[in-house]
Amino acid sequence: MTEKKLNPRDAFGNALLDLGRENKRIMAVSCDSGAGSGMNPFKQALPHQYLEVGINEQNAIGVCAGLAEGGFIPVVSAIAPFISMRAFEQVRNDLGYANMNVKVIGSSSGLSHSALGSTHQAIEDLSLMRVIPNMVVLNPGDSYEVEMSLREAIKHKGPVYIRMPRHSMAEPLEVSQRHFKLGKGEVLMNTGDEIVIAVSGTLTVDGLMTGKILDEMGYGVKVLNFTTVKPLDTELLYEAYKDAKYLFTLEEHSEIGGFGSAVVEALGPVKHGGPIHLIGITDGSINTGPYRELLETYGLTWEKVVDRILNVIQK
Amino acid sequence: MITESIEKKAFSIRKHIVNTVINNGDGHAGPSLSCTDILATLYFGIMDINVDEPKWAQRDRFILSAGHKCLGLYGTLIEKGFEEPDVMETYNMLGSIVPGHPDMKKFNGVDFSSGALGHGLPIGSGMALSAKLKGDKNRVFVLMGDGEQGEGSNWEAAMFASHHGLDNLVGIIDRNGLQINGSTRDVLDTRDLREKYATFGWSVKVVDGHNIEELFSTFQSIPFQKGKPSMVIANTTKSKGMPFAEGNVKYHHWNPGKNSKESKDAIFALEKYAKEKGWTI
Hints:
The complex is a heterodimer. Chain A has helices spanning 8-22, 34-37, 40-45, 57-69, 80-86, 88-97, 125-130, 143-155, 204-216, 234-241, 259-267, 291-297, 302-313; strands at residues 26-30, 50-52, 73-79, 103-107, 136-138, 160-163, 186-190, 195-199, 221-225, 228-230, 246-254, 276-281. By secondary structure, chain A is of the alpha/beta class. Chain A folds into two domains: 8-163, Rossmann fold, CATH 3.40.50.970; 183-313, Rossmann fold (3-Layer(aba) Sandwich), CATH 3.40.50. The radius of gyration of chain A is 19 Å and the shape is globular. The mean pLDDT of chain A is 95. By secondary structure, chain B is α/β, with parallel strands linked by helices.
């Protein structure tokens, strides 16, 4: 694991600026959220490719659909619950069904705004976005994944939702060891088939730490990381699962409808493999507080995850 | 006279609407019939489009934000030559390219899919901004209902469009005064739409939505004011052309069945109208 890296917001902002310089069709669209999303460098350097819409997410998505129809590639950002939930029908109809080339950035997603309460937390957005036709759903957990997600999203022609983290995260591996590809997962650790931990998003390092501890305790462990939630890398998942005694999914999202659900949907028809346990945020959790403390309260830090897994496998 | 040729097209579009519902069952006849003269004026007198190249980048765009009026749009696009008339025989059938709300992936000439109310003005604003940014001269027309004005997204877009000076954007409200549950006055009052849009920074004109000459000259004067989006509030009659149904809220949907009295009355009214005009149908 590496030291904490660049703030995800800055990683996003720098990559967006690079991409905007290369491709004049890229429009950065702010819902009074540009600064909070890391778009300020873009705004300063490329003002003609920057659009401030104001606080109106439904209109913003429609405007982006219209811009995309005219050949632009809008990258629209707002705090995750507002862009994915207030404007859900616009995203579904005008981007998803219409297959418009718009990149929707749900910033400060998950429990990022841990202290601000349920209105500003987004623990349902993966569930909502992945059910939309044509929508690619990316869930980067660190600055490397943020940058690569944006670059791959721009290459992809069609709607993409990127669930942006807010806090600076350590990265599970050195960048030189990573091979990001849209639609593909990666193996972070492989010492055996007994326990598979499939993680997506901000808890990647917690997933890897969990794997290392279980390995030290003598279990054979695989830790897989999936930045792309849709389309899911079912091949990697199946290969890891077919001989596994247990599979645990881990994510900073509701246990209903998110990455874990996508894994269960994919592996449901598979004959081999052991039980699948979803580790995420229990339905109805509405606590607030400092970010790591809230993760701990919800049982999502590696110390808690180790305990949760041992509770299952030692029964 | 161009207005007479537009009037004939409006009549042909009404025939498509009435015949489709008689032959294929339930459709939004009333709302489609109220905007027929507007559609005919736009497509046969105002808009610059190319039937041979439906996706021509420089074309004027039209969004039927009130997507349930699609029978009117289908009839218009058929009259324009985008599809053959017999596609309407598949209305309400499995796999039809003429579903109950228009789909841009299915029907040539539909510039954007619609159906959920309050989506058209934001999308049209984006299209208009796109044209401005590229230096294109095309215009974007968005047809809405008056009941649809209850959707807040329209007012978000209204603020956005005037803020960005989108004078290549034209909103049209087909104000027939009725929505499914009753009159707009009773459900959610829309009498002061002129003042509302003017306050939101639009240049607004109120016209008779069945007077082709007035519609034509109004659309010819777009933009009404340089630097402002234009809004045409067209006062119309729901179910226009079917005397027994005109202004009657229960004809929002219509499903008379073949050979019913209402279907015969509707055909008779169309024939009578054409005869009075001296047209052969």
